Amino acid sequence: SFPSDEVIRKRLLIDGDGAGDDRRINLLVKSFIKWCNSGSQEEGYLQYQRMLSTLSQCEFSMGKTLLVYDMNLREMENYEKIYKDIENSIAAAHEKISECKKQILQAKRIRKNRQEYDALAKVIQHHPDRHETLKQLEALGKELQNLSHIKENVEDKLELRRKQFHVLLSTIHELQQTLENDEKLSEAEESQETQMEAEAKQ
User: Fold this and answer.
1) Which structural domain range is residue 34 located in?
2) Binning pLDDT at 50, 70 and 90, where does residue 109 land?
3) Angle between helices 41-125 and 21-36 (to 10 degrees)
4) Taking Cα atoms as reference points, which of 28, 26, 29 lies closest to residue 14?
């Protein structure tokens, strides 16, 4: 029957890595006891050969264990180196990510500035340049000066017309007075003539 898992686990715990060292030591002790109790030289030599064979197996197993141990040490050193390389790579990746984030922020700022510059450029394009604006201002100044002269001339003419109109009104008033006086004089003369005619008839 096959041994249970518990039995296998106990054997592995006793035997170390399961290479049979404990069994070989037990065989070596038994062979040594038999060699000590051997009655004949042939039996003693046979036990001696068995002990040598068992010692060789133990030495081989020990050498193998040492090689495995050295290999495990080198493997651990290699893993530590790989782990450090991975840590360095992760740190470098974090630095690169941080730098990329800074570059992205800078690119966003540059893009925003360019958009603002383009918007300002479009606004500026709708307005005339400085030289053209100065020319327009100069033309407007001249036109304003001409309008000012025209205004003065118009005001002078208005003042002249006002004076002439005042003289005309005065003349009309005087003429009206004269006409009224003439009319009164004519009425008086007519009345006097009528009275004289009436007196002559009597």
Assistant:
1) 1-124
2) very high
3) 160
4) 26
Assess contact for 47 and 38: CB atoms under 8 A.
yes
Is 115 buried (19+), middle (13-18) or exposed (0-12) by CB count in 10 A? exposed
Q: What is the pLDDT of residue 91?
A: 92
Domain shared by 52 and 6, yes or no? yes
Q: Are 36 and 113 members of one domain?
A: yes
pTM score of the predicted model: 0.37
Number of domains comprising the chain: 2
Q: Where are the alpha helices (DSSP H) in 16-129?
A: 21-36, 41-125
- The band of 101, judged by pLDDT with boundaries at 50, 70 and 90, is very high
Neighbours of 124 (CB within 10 A): 10
At 134 the pLDDT is 82
Task: Report the chain's C-alpha Rg in angstroms.
Answer: 70
- At 13-24, the pLDDT tens digits run 444 444 456 666
Residues 106 and 174 in one domain: no
